[in-house]
Amino acid sequence: MTDDATTAAGATGTLGYEQARDELIEVVRRLEAGGTTLEESLALWERGEELAKVCRRWLEGARARLDAALAGPADSQDSGGGGTTAATKTATAAADNG
């Protein structure tokens, strides 16, 4: 593993979703382009796996937050707290498509 890859691997835990996704796209592009040594390819593959895990954790967290938000308005409705908002409808549609 190169020094850059080692440094980047250490920073994986602090990456936001978009940053991890963008770096993962770059890793895949480099792997698909070829021209790297076996050792470099393995390092890129390992980095890609780590980045995919970061993305997966972000998406799972977002799904949990969305599920919690969707559960909240239903509780309010049961106690006479109002109707379905446009934001709830949008969130529901996004969850159904996810």
What does this structure look like?
There is one protein chain. The chain is mainly alpha-helical. Helix content is 80%, strand content 0%. It has four helices and no strands. α2 runs antiparallel to α3 and α3 (38-78) runs antiparallel to α4 (86-97). The longest helix is centred in the middle third of the chain and has 41 residues, at 38-78. It is elongated, with a radius of gyration of 20 Å. Mean pLDDT is 78; it is low at 91-98.
Q: What brief labels describe this structure?
A:
mainly alpha, 80% helix, 98 residues, disordered C terminus
Let me know the number of strands.
Answer: 0
- Biggest sheet statistics: none
Number of helices, counting only DSSP H or I runs of 4 residues or more: 4
Q: Helicity, in percent?
A: over 70%
Structural class: mainly alpha
Provide the low-confidence segments as ranges. 91-98
- Rounded mean pLDDT score: 78
Shape: elongated
What's the order of the H and E elements?
Answer: HHHH
Taking the alpha carbons of the first and last residues, their distance comes to 35 Å
Radius of gyration: 20 Å
Strand residues, percent: under 5%
